[in-house]
Each structure stands twice: as structure tokens, then as C-alpha cells.
Amino acid sequence: MAEIRIKNVAKQFGAFTALHSVDMTIRDREFMVLLGASGCGKTTLLRIIAGLETPSQGEVWIGDRRVDKLPPRERGIAMVFQNYAVFPHLTVFENIAFGLRMAKLPQSEVDRRVKRTAELMHIEQLLKRYSGQLSGGQRQRVAVARALAMEPDVILMDEPLSNLDALLRLEMRAELKGVLAESKTTTIYVTHDQVEAMSLADRISVMNGGYIVQSADPVEVYRNPAARFVGSFIGNPPMNFLPATRAGTNQWTVAGRVVPGPNAPRDRIEFAIRPEDMRLGEDGIPATVRVVEPLGAHTLVTTDVDGSMLRALVDSDLSVAPGDHLSLVPQPDRVRWFDPETMEAVR
Amino acid sequence: MTTATDTVSVTRDEVRSASKWLFVAGVVMLCIWVLLPIYFLMINALSSPEEVTSFPKRMFPSFDLASVTFFFKFQGVLRALWNSVQVASLTMILAIGLGAPAGYALSRFDFRGKEAFRFLVIMTRAFPLPLLALPLAIMFIRTGLDDTILGLALVHATLALPFAVLITFSLFSGIPVELEEAAWTLGCTRIQAFYKVILPLALPGIAASAVFAFVISWNEVFAAAVLTIQNRTLTAFLLQSLDVSPLPLKFAGGAMLVLPALIFIFAVRKYLFAMWGIANR
């Protein structure tokens, strides 16, 4: 059992607050992704769980042990670093065996575990090499194998794929997902890549400015952002936002059209829609085309609506050119609303 | 329009080729400045005494070892040589024993006054040794450290320490902190991580830094001359006795002094560049 509970954890670096009182629970065997832009506190949170950073306040529990005062080696964790941190003076075999030797396991057990994890990561043929003789992808595999060989309660990964080229990243992503699901280990994975987060996670925690903004499964995070930031961060291209003014009870005026909406205690709120949730039709949002970008399956059209930018993904058969006037009809059940003061969703 | 661009590009080319010439000329000047004296020293040391005093001078040595042999048979030379080796070895041990931990601390920990400390380390080089020599000599006589190997090694270690600190600082800074952190997560204490991961990676550089401390002590003449009387190091001995020696002996002695330093420095040159922030790969 390795449920991780983080209670009221905060971290200040001098006058800078990297984390504001974070509470979260990561369930046993869950794949949790911490997602956010650089500087949002996600790596700090991971390093606090690992024991590489001391929290300014709060508690960290792994299973039924409070670990925030323990050194990293006593926490039952293994970590994969962004730059792999494969020891250059040791062979791949000795790298994978490093932690096992520190734990003073018998040689037969060391051999067995190194062999098994090396096979799992497809690096059996590299065991005698040094890290200088490996490619980035191979080093990444060694780093993961080294972590898995420890058979830890928790695996922590700090942007493990961000130094790989795009094609390799795709390949490793799928492989990691398989291997980690197989290992049944609780995993915390830090990334700034939303696609990686969506594809890997059981649950995503979106972080911004030292706060956890939303923790939910990937589809929920995508469909129902709890805050404007989540909508604007996740999705490529991200959510569109248009100003809305009150037109009556539960009625709002958006780009000259009156649409039904929530009952918010304000006169101005924001209307939000994802680019793929609009179609061309009668009586839609009047939009002037500015830029047309064919993407293959779809065409991304950037338009101007009363001075606001609105992006729509339309069928690539459609021929549009800059200057055209379109009428974009939002899919009613996909429309979301945000309070421009609190930046939170209005339901 | 076209003409204007042409003019500009021609001018730019001229500037580029002029600066290239200046660069090459500078490099040649520096090389002559350093290499010419060494070259003359070597020629004369390896020529017979008659050739050294004759005219015109030879451009190539005759590989006559008479001067060198005579130099080594000169009374007191071997003892001074042995003193030099002892002092330099002790200097090396002191400089690395104190300097490497300081370099590690500077590269890995943030502490109050870190920048001031780094500055002070360099500042120790700003005090001219002649100014310190007299008080030092008196202090050494009072404590009984005068004319001892240890006393001189202490002074030389002070001279070598700033370099030991700076070289090992840049050395440890070049080793990613993640390697250490990975070792911690894999079951190491801080000290185990240092011995199992950092030390093997830093060892060649530490050795280089030790050699550099050795050379600093080997070459140092002022403190050695002031603080020793009976137990002279080679530099101090040569300063004292070569003044009144014949020319071939001076050349032989000079060459014997320069040679070990040259060989050592050449062997560890890439780590010394690291001290100034040029890549240490």
C-alpha cells in the first residue's frame, strides 16, 4: 500500500512562495500527473515528496508513515530525473544494480532484478556499456530501469521525456505507460506537456502559481475546466473566451447574440468554447477570418469577433480565405462560463 | 542600394581580416614571450660549458650533458632537491585537504556570505609576500617553525589554496547535482553519495589541482629564501649559490627547475582551463 497524502505543504524560497499550502491525496497504484507551466511549483512539490527539498510547512505521508523529516533513502521512493542522471563512471549493469547493492541484496537477487528490468526496458544488450556510449533514449531507459529495479512503493518522474526528440518521446510515452501499469507502482509524473499528461494520467493535477487549480481525470480536466487557466492551458489550440453581458435572467449577450447561460451574480462574465466544438451554420457567432492554417485532418481558422480572437477547427474540405465572413454555431452542451473576477468556472 | 550594401560588406570583410591578423599576431607574440626563454634555457643546458660561453650561439643543442652532470654533483643540490620535493608534497596535501572541501561547499551549498568568501579567497593573492615575509619570519622563529619543512609548506599551502579552492569549485560544479540526488534516492547517505559517485568523477581533476599546488610550491622562491637557512629548497638554494656560479651551471640549474613544472602543467592543462570557466570536458 502506498497512498501518498500531502497535508498543507508549502514552500518558500526567500521571499518567493513556490507552493501555497497544497493538500492532495494520490491513491495506491494511481498514475498522477502534475501539469503546469515552468515555475508553477510542480517540480518543487515532486522534490518535496522525494525528500530532495524540505517543505516550509506541512506533512507528507507515504502509506502509513510520515516521511517529511526522513532522508530520501528511507522513503521507499525511486526517482527518474529530467537529465537521466545515469552515473557516467559505471556500466549500465552497475547503474541498475546501484540501489540494490546499497540495499545489500545478495548477488543472485541483484542479477535477477537487473536482468528482469533490463529486459522490460529492452536494454539487455547494453548492460556492459557506459553512459557516454548511449543515446539519449537509451539513457532514459537505463534511468527508468534503475528506478524499477528498486521495486519502490512510489516512482517519481521529473519531466523524463522532455529531453528526447519528438518521435522518440511518442514511443517512450506509450512504453512507459505499459511498463508502469504492469509494475502496479504509484507514480507521480511531472510534465509541462499537456498531451503527455492527457495520454498517461489516471488523474491530472493542474498547477499554476504554486496552487493546484484542478485535480481530475484527463477528460474531465479537458471538458470541464475548473478555472479559466485550465481551459487556456490545456488543449491545442486552447479554449476560446468571449466577453458576455447580462441580457436577462440566465440570458447572456455574446457577440450580439443572446444565449442561455448560468445565473451568475455579475453583469459581465466570460463565454468559453473549445475550437472543435463549433460548426458552421445559420445564426451563429459572426466571425471575420484572419488566418487559415490547414492541419491535415482539420483546418484551424483564426477569426476576429468584435475585436476578440476566436479560433475554430473546421473540416479541411471547407474552402475559406482571410476576409471571409463565417457564422460559427457553438455546440450548446460544450459551452462553459467563467467569472472574470475570480477566474473560476460558473455553472 | 546595391552599392551601399557592397561597400558595407567590403568594410566588414576588411575589419574581419584585420582583426584576424591582430589575433594571429597576438598569439605569435605571446608564444615567443613564453617559449623563447625556455628554448634558450634548454639549448644552453644541453650544450657543453665551452659552447655556452663561446660566440656565436648555437641554434640547436649539442646534447652534451657535462653541465647537467656537474650541476647534480654540486654540493647541496641533491639535498635541496629532496627538501623541495618534501615541501611541495606537503603543500599539495594541505592545499587539497583544505581546498577540496571548500570547493565542494562552494559549489553545493548556499550560505550567507558565499560571494564574500569567494572574493576573499581571491583576495589572499592581493597581499604581496615581501610585505608579509618579515612578520612571518619573526612569528616562525618564535614558534620554532623557521627553517622547517612544515613551516615552509604552510606558507606555500596558503599560496596554493586559492587555486585549489577555485579549481575544485569549478570541478564539482561541473558534476550535475542530479547525480548526487539520484544516489540519495537509491539509498546513499550524503557521504556515501560523495564517495561512490562524486569522488570517482572528480578524481582526475583533483589530481590535477594537486599537481598544480605541487608546482606552485616547487617554483616559489621568495618565502623559501626568507624562511629557510639550512633546509633550503632547490629554488632558494639556486638563488643563493648560482649567483656566484659559472654560466653553464646557471643554465643547467634553471632547466632543472623549469622542467618538472612544465611537464606537470602540460599534463593537467585541461583542468586548469576549467578554473577559468572554459569547458572542463
Automatic annotation (TrEMBL), chain A:
Subcellular location: Cell inner membrane
Domain called ABC transporter: residue spans: 4-234
Pfam families recorded: ABC_tran, TOBE_2
Any GO MF annotation of the entry: ATP binding
Keyword match Nucleotide-binding: yes
Membrane topology: Peripheral membrane protein
Top-level division of the source organism's lineage: Bacteria
Assigned protein family: Belongs to the ABC transporter superfamily.
UniProt protein name: ABC transporter ATP-binding protein
Gene source species: Oricola cellulosilytica
Upper lineage: Bacteria, Pseudomonadati, Pseudomonadota, Alphaproteobacteria, Hyphomicrobiales
From TrEMBL, chain B:
Membrane protein topology class: Multi-pass membrane protein
Cellular compartment(s): Cell membrane
Gene Ontology, cellular component aspect: plasma membrane
One of the GO BP terms on file: transmembrane transport
InterPro entries for the chain: BP-dep_ABC_trans_perm, MetI-like, MetI-like_sf
Main location: membrane
Residue span(s) of domain ABC transmembrane type-1: 81-268
Family to which this protein belongs: Belongs to the binding-protein-dependent transport system permease family.
Protein name according to UniProt: Carbohydrate ABC transporter permease
